From TrEMBL:
Cellular component per GO, a single term: cytoplasm
Record key words, sorted: ATP-binding, Cytoplasm, Kinase, Nucleotide-binding, Transferase
Annotated InterPro entries: Aliphatic_acid_kin_short-chain, Aliphatic_acid_kinase_CS, ATPase_NBD, Butyrate_kin
Domain of life: Bacteria
Subcellular location: Cytoplasm
Family recorded in the similarity comment: Belongs to the acetokinase family.
Protein name from the UniProt record: Probable butyrate kinase
Annotated GO biological process: acetate metabolic process
Name of the gene this protein is made from: buk
Predominant location category: cytoplasm
């Protein structure tokens, strides 16, 4: 039996949607939203109706009937959960609405749920949200009991490429030890031990290497000083760390292609910044080798930055002594969502209770 699947992935300035017949994507569309339009909304959840209408209009424009077997949304950041596929419930939607970490992905479950409610017999799911927590107890401990370490990472894409690597090597993900680095607007690096990510950084709000737009780990005493002297509010400081840092803060752009052009034109500052990013990513990958006690089947590089041959080759120079390095450029999140939905409908993947 073939299932018709609608996948929904809300991002900062777009809502990506796809329609699939089984696991075959019929189309993927990145529905753009201008910053001027989004500025009218006070909260992320205030954008819900606006984004929903854009999705329905795009489906109507393509003459796609609302007769889906399942909808699946990108999971939000409300609370830690196990890896897997979850049925969307009103409780989940409410938890995302009031989540401490507000991100457009929090809308994924509500969009999937409400559209599924329009269709008789349609089920709604999320899969491997960014707050999947499989970390070892040691990984949660910090030097302050009041602040345990959490992970907000690219669980959906990392799990998907881990399974892809296993398939391509005639084995299963739960038999492998992998270090997977997602290199995109945010950077997450995780140690996967036999199907569980036992250590991962908080790629959203200040942990790990700096990225094109996030600060990564910073000297704490200097951050405390900045909080008291900058005149910025708490929310402005959070925005500074999560979306105004990294390469953007140093170079005025988070577009790696533009930065590469500047390097080719002789921009020494840009060259140094990229060299530092490579340095810090490589160092973080090597650190996960210690978590796995050096027993590493492969290191996987994925995410949008991996389309840069220069960046990939420079990272390989620093880490290839640890294990074979495999590269899967980009992030095929729409296919990953679709595959999870189909597996759930076919009974091959447990549908977990939120």
């Amino acid at each position: 039996m073939s299932y018709k699947i609608l996948a929904i992935n809300p991002g900062s300035t777009s809502t990506k949607i796809s329609v699939a017949d089984g696991c075959e994507l019929l189309f993927v569309e990145d529905v753009k939203h201008s910053r001027s339009e989004l500025e009218h909304f006070h909260t992320i959840f205030d954008q819900y109706e606006y984004r929903k209408q854009h999705i329905l209009q795009e489906l109507e424009r393509r003459n796609i009937a609302l007769d889906f077997d399942a909808t699946i949304g990108r999971g939000g950041l409300a609370k830690p959960v196990e890896s897997g596929v979850y049925r969307v419930t009103p409780e989940m939607v409410e938890d995302q609405r009031t989540a401490a970490h507000q991100h457009p992905c929090d809308l994924g479950c509500k969009l999937a749920y409400e559209i599924a409610e329009m269709i008789p017999g349609c089920q709604s799911f999320i899969a491997d949200p960014g707050v999947v927590d499989e970390m070892a107890p040691e990984a949660h401990i910090t030097g302050l009991p009041e602040i345990p370490r959490i992970c907000i990472w690219h669980a959906l894409n990392q799990k998907a490429v881990g399974r892809r690597y296993a398939r391509e090597n005639n084995t299963s993900y739960d038999k492998l030890n992998l270090i997977i680095a997602h290199l995109g607007g945010g950077i997450s690096i995780a140690a996967h031990e036999q199907g569980r990510a036992i250590d991962a950084n908080n790629a959203l709000s200040g942990d790990g290497p700096f990225s094109p737009e996030r600060t990564g780990t910073l000297p704490m005493s200097d951050i405390i000083h900045l909080c008291y002297t900058s005149g910025l509010t708490e929310q402005q400081m959070i925005k500074k760390i999560t979306s105004q840092g990294g390469l953007l803060a140093h170079l005025g752009t988070n577009d790696f292609r533009i930065i590469r052009d500047r390097i080719d034109a002789g921009d020494e500052k840009a060259k140094l910044l990229i060299s530092s990013l490579i340095w810090n990513v490589s160092k973080a990958i090597a650190a996960e080798g210690a978590v796995l006690c050096g027993k590493i089947d492969a290191i996987i590089l994925t995410g949008g930055m991996c389309f840069s041959t220069y960046l990939v080759n420079e990272i390989k120079k620093r880490i290839s002594y640890l294990a074979p390095v495999v590269v899967y450029p980009g992030q095929d999140e729409m296919l990953a969502l679709t595959e999870n939905a189909v597996a759930a409908l076919e009974g091959k993947q447990e549908i977990k209770v939120y």
